[in-house]
Specification:
heterodimer, A: alpha/beta, Rossmann fold, two-stranded antiparallel sheet, 9 helices, 11 strands, 34% helix, 25% strand, B: alpha/beta, Immunoglobulin-like, 4 domains, 7-stranded mixed sheet, 5-stranded mixed sheet, 11 helices, 22% helix, 27% strand, elongated
Chain lengths: 297, 571
């Protein structure tokens, strides 16, 4: 019995699939067995036959090829190719700040969906983890579903709430991500980004990281047309902000510094950092994510 | 600027209410932002400014401005109208043969024409009539205020070979002026030897500008003079304005005399093309008239003397008993201070200074001051019909009815008619061998009898007729004590302390009630005491004040509209 999985067709519309199909994820050459398939060859673990070799003490007798013994009068042991797909983990920030401005969370979910679909089409094992204060394992993609409809359905149902704790979320995600996986983090990065420690751990675990910074122009220069009290959508904190030119310039300077520092930390851990402005079209965003400068994931 | 309704400013008391309401209902506007990580709120001054701006929003400022403007509109501010001093001007230009005399720069007429043209250009704000005269005056053109055609008309005038008749020119010019509010300027070479008395008239200011062979047009004139007798021990005020029309400084003396006695003699210096106003205060006993005299050298000294009567015109009540005589009625009404009441029948109960009997054939004849017209009627000659039945025959044997069909003319009467008081009948004038008019003064009876039919002569169409009536009335009223009264425009000392708030249009409160005025006529409802202005003086006219409240009300409405738009946009 197959459970029907539905996703929001307004969020993931025809244009979405058109863009995603035109932007396939790159292949890591050393892991490729053949073009279009990413597989790690490990003998003896999977069901696909690989070779016969002479029996050695300690080998599992269940692996002895008795037909070969009758024909060749030699004790040979079957060896199987251990075929395991690549893990692609999408870590999506679902905190309340992603909902401000209104289009940010929409764009972030479409990008996460694009990454998932592209990974599924590459036969990756796609895992979607959402996080705000804590990270939550939302869905694990079935390899039989080349359109990652389960992930898309999960993304369709998400809401932006709670506060952001990127550091803790990376720590938690690191415990779930398997060695050699690829971790794609989509966030507005509007939280402290002292992420050196979890990044180091991921690096040691040969996890490739790609930080996708989804940002709006208002993050850098607030749009204050009249006197109003700014309220932090996550914490409810207020501040006095007149919107004078020096204040706005200082705001932009701090934002730039924060983003640059975060990018430096990511690159220091051999990760990739992609800036996704909401002002760019979605197709451009997908291309930026699929082929980050100087790297192939 | 004045406020017609100062109580409207009470609306300003709403301002604290507006501010309080704004503070009470003020909604703190807030916007949700993704993060406050990068917001700088550390500067206390910035926070203070933030809080101030949050309270003092544009809406509050607009509402305060709207209420203030509305209060200003309600108080009806008015800008005082500009004061203008314009009046009708008749420019008489001498074109007689004597103006053809030449001097170094041309003829006298060139000088006259240039001066007149310059004068016309300088008085464009006035209505001007240009008259050319030598023997017989004629109108060259009439020009409305602002019309520059007067100069062209003057330039087109050429001298002729006639004589100079200043008197005729002045009479002609005065007939053109609709009211006393006008001036006559005569540009002449001044060589006709005319009697200065003709200039010293009591109706209009007359300036005579001389143009002599040397081309100099300098002239100093007393252009206005007045006397304000003091009362209650206060000194009498003598006012004079001297104008130097020439290009050289005038140096001389001003002498003021009262009833022929010199009161003041003071040196006088008037700069070229300037005027000087002199106000002197001297305690003087009762006097009838004052004269002002300039003693300095002047090329034209006919206007260096001014005479001012210290007495005012007293009212005269006249009863005209007639069955209809428009000529007589209009001529009597034109007498200074006259109030004419027309009746068809005389009764002894009528109280009047003068009774005018027009073709009366009735009953009683008044006993007092009588002007009898057309004495072919028998009543006035019948002593039995007089109210005073003393049996004395007054006129019976002295009547000389005018023959029918007598021809008269304005020129004939103008120089002939004067009324001389006499104890008995005195002929005023005759027509042929017949007595056309006579006077009689006997006891309490004074009679002027005009023994001809005024409807059958052209006399009434000339200015000689009202002049005759004026002289007759003046003589008839001699010796009659008449109370003082007030004419429109006279300055009236108020014993009740005067009115207040009379600078506003509308009802003006007085001590004993309200004075109703025409609310729709700013000049009529302006009941401020008028400045005393002698005949011919320049009368200052104030334009009606400009009301500002419509503009202010519109501004207030605009502010409220902007306020509403801003409010709706911020929603």
């Amino acid at each position: 019995m197959t459970r029907a999985v539905e996703f929001d067709t307004t969020l993931f519309d025809a244009e979405f699939f058109s863009v995603v199909r035109g932007a396939r994820l790159p292949v890591r050459p050393r892991d490729a067995v053949r073009a279009g398939i990413r597989a790690v060859r490990r003998l003896g673990e999977s069901l696909e036959f690989a070779e016969l070799r002479p029996y050695q003490p300690g080998d599992d007798l269940r692996l002895v090829d008795w037909n070969a013994f009758r024909r060749l009068d030699r004790v040979l042991v079957r060896r199987y190719q251990a075929e395991r797909s690549h893990d692609l983990v999408v870590l999506l920030d679902t905190s309340a700040s992603m909902g401000v401005p209104a289009g940010r969370f929409h764009r972030a979910r479409r990008l996460a969906g694009a990454v998932a679909v592209m990974g599924a089409q590459r036969n990756d094992r796609v895992t979607l983890i959402t996080f705000d204060t804590v990270s939550r394992l939302s869905v694990v993609h079935s390899r039989r579903d080349t359109n990652a409809t389960g992930v898309l359905a999960t993304l369709s149902a998400l809401r932006s709430t709670g506060q952001t704790d990127l550091v803790e979320s990376l720590v938690a995600a690191g415990e779930r991500v398997r060695r050699g996986s690829t971790l794609v983090v989509l966030s507005d990065l509007l939280s402290p980004t002292a992420i050196e420690s979890p990044l180091s751990r991921l690096q040691r675990n040969h996890v490739r990281t790609l930080f996708v910074h989804v940002w709006a122009a208002a993050d850098r220069t607030p749009d204050l047309r009249s006197v109003a009290t700014p309220i932090d959508v996550e914490t409810g904190d207020e501040t006095a902000f007149l919107g004078s030119r020096p204040q706005l310039e200082e705001h932009a300077r701090r934002f730039d510094h924060h983003v640059e520092a975060t990018a430096e930390r990511v690159r220091a851990a051999e990760g990739e950092f992609v800036s996704i402005p909401l002002s760019d079209p979605f197709s451009q965003n997908v291309l930026d994510v699929a082929r980050p400068a100087g790297a192939a994931w | 600027m004045t406020l017609a309704f100062p109580a409207g400013l009470w609306l300003l008391t709403l301002l604290p209410v507006v501010v309080a309401a704004h503070l009470f209902f003020h909604e703190k506007r807030s916007i949700f932002v993704a993060s406050l990580m990068f917001w700088d709120s550390g500067d206390p001054r910035e926070q203070h400014r933030f809080r101030l701006r949050a309270v003092l929003s544009m809406n509050l400022l607009l509402q305060v401005a709207a209420v203030t403007t509305l209060a200003a509109a309600l108080s009806q501010p008015e800008l005082a109208g500009a004061t203008t001093s314009s009046r009708d001007v008749v420019i008489c230009i001498d074109t007689s043969a004597s103006t053809l005399a030449r001097h170094d720069d041309g003829t006298r007429f060139d000088t006259i024409r240039a001066a007149a043209s310059r004068f016309a250009a300088d008085h464009r704000e006035s209505a001007r009539v240009v008259v050319a005269f030598s023997g017989k005056p004629r109108v060259v053109g009439s020009f409305a205020p602002g019309d520059g055609g007067a100069e062209e008309a003057i330039a087109a005038i050429a001298p002729d070979h006639g004589g100079t008749d200043l008197g005729a020119a002045l009479a002609f010019a005065e007939a053109l002026l609709p009211s006393v509010d006008g001036t006559v300027h005569i540009f002449t070479d001044g060589s006709d030897g005319v009697d200065p008395g003709v200039i010293d008239n009591d109706r209009h200011v007359v300036h005579v500008v001389g143009a002599r062979s040397d081309g100099v047009t300098d002239n100093v004139a007393i252009v206005a003079a007045d006397v304000s007798p003091g009362s209650g021990g206060a000194p009498t005020r003598f006012f004079a304005r001297i104008e130097n029309l020439g290009s050289a400084q005038y140096e001389g003396e001003l002498i003021v005399e009262a009833d022929g006695n010199e009161l003041i003699r003071r040196p006088l210096i008037v700069e070229a093309e300037a005027s000087q106003t002199i106000l002197l205060e001297v305690p003087v006993a009762t006097f009838e008239g004052a004269s002002f005299l300039l003693t300095g050298e002047d090329l034209l000294n006919v206007d260096n003397v001014a005479y001012v009567s210290a007495s005012r015109i007293a009212p005269t009540s006249i009863v005209l008993v007639t069955r209809g005589n428009p000529f007589l009625e209009s001529a009597l009404s034109a007498l200074p201070g006259a109030t004419v009441t027309v009746r068809t029948l005389y009764t002894p109960a009528i109280d009047a200074d003068i009774v005018v009997l027009d073709r009366r054939d009735g009953t009683a004849v008044p006993y007092g001051r009588i002007l009898a017209v057309d004495s072919r009627l028998p009543g006035i000659h019948d002593p039995a019909r007089l109210e005073r039945a003393d049996g004395e025959s007054l006129l019976a044997s002295d009547t000389h009815p005018v023959a029918e069909g007598v021809e008269t003319s304005a020129a004939f009467f103008a120089d002939l008619w004067t009324v001389e008081p006499a104890p008995g009948r005195r002929p005023i004038f005759t027509s042929g061998s017949r007595l056309a008019a006579f006077s009689l003064d006997r006891d309490d009876l004074r009679v002027v009898s005009l023994n001809f039919d005024v409807t059958r002569t052209n006399l009434v169409l000339s200015d000689a007729f009202p002049r005759l009536l004026f002289n007759a009335a003046d003589w008839l009223l001699e010796g009659i004590e008449r109370p003082w009264t007030v004419r429109t425009g006279d300055t009236v000392p108020s014993s009740t302390g005067g009115y207040v708030d009379t600078r506003y249009t509308g009802f003006a409160p007085a001590d004993d009630g309200l004075l109703a005025v025409n609310l729709f006529d700013p000049s009529e409802s302006d009941i401020r005491p008028a400045m005393a202005a002698g005949a011919g003086d320049t009368i200052e006219r104030s334009a009606p004040p400009r009301c500002l409240w419509p503009w202010l009300a519109a501004t207030a409405a605009l502010l409220l509209v902007i306020d509403t738009l801003l409010w709706s946009r911020s929603r």
